[in-house]
Design goal:
The chain is α/β, with parallel strands linked by helices. The chain is about 35% helix and about 15% strand. The strands form four sheets. The chain has a six-stranded parallel sheet, with helices on both faces.
Amino acid sequence: MSYASLEDLLAEGVRGRRVLVRSDLNVPLDGNVPSLRVTDDGRVRASLPVLRKLSEAGAAVIVLAHLGRPKGAPEEKYSLKPAVDALEGLADFPVRRASDTTGESARAAAASLQPGEVLVLENVRFDARETSKDDAERAAFARELAGLAGSDGAYVDDAFGAVHRKHASVFDIAQLLPAYQGDLVQAEVEVLQELTQDPKRPFVVVLGGSKVSDKLAVIDNLIGKADRLLIGGGMVFTFLAAQGHKVGASLLEEDQLDVVRGYLSRAAKAGSEFVLPTDIVVAEKFAADAGKSVVAADAIETSPYGAGGLGLDIGPATGADFAEHISEAQTVFWNGPMGVFEFEAFAGGTRTVAEALVAAGKSGALTVVGGGDSAAAVRGLGFEDGQFGHISTGGGASLEYLEGKELPGLTALERN
């Protein structure tokens, strides 16, 4: 695939032109309306470089973004205002905000926008046409967005986290304006291509998170490509149950047992090894202050809590085992925490994996942290983005790329 890049656009010249940028400002919030606050500004920070480059080059920048999943109409709890406030606090360029998407506020603000200024429109998902399944409805909204840029406008997609969506601000608008790949999208594609096409070996994949069903297609596509797949998080209990072990009250997807058995059988023939925990941290209940006990992974119900105990983290022996596998790798992809990292008592496994990735990176390995939960976990545990080779902003889009799916937002950017 070949794409026009941001550098191509800058080389053409943007001074005095209005440039629409699809950014990813879908940040986690805490609190209640009207005092919502951003709890992880990683995506806001990641959006800064492209906006800064365009601002410094003299473009009048109009940012399109979404937050949450409103139902096609304005909802104050999904307003981009907290994200814009965070952007304004971090930016070294002027930031303005419109109170709608393509209405009176947006049109007036876009018309008066000066070179170097950045205008953020309200949540594009406040307009039902953004996510419509009807091509004509999406195209109509895209035309309104493109109209804000004027006759010599341009479009830059810098939101890899949305490229798997066939939405107006991602797919349709790229048909209406000269379209370019932003730096975030370009970096993400390059890293994912390295993971899927010719990774340096050993290639180790660490998968966690709550449900194995969320990762089925990724696992399916990585069998035969990854040398080892280290499995933790809530999804591990379906793997353990598939091997015939009792898992107490731990999270279990019984409808996926046969699928997991098939993966375990297939992997051995394809040259990929599943590495499962040897010990588990079992709790008496789902709570930060719950009593806990470390038991063998094949003996969860022998904990003091019996069949009522639930696994909330991988055990220390497993953490050490996972760290050793990671230390031997030349390429590591990690998606999903190893336990309930939000509770300090059950954050040990996730912290150990993060530390192992940092060490592997220092030894020259490519280390990729993928998925919002993983990124939030490493930041929440005190790690810096720069300690890892690449922290994905892609979320579900990255997983779909690894599944081998076609992503509409990338297709729309392809050069003919």
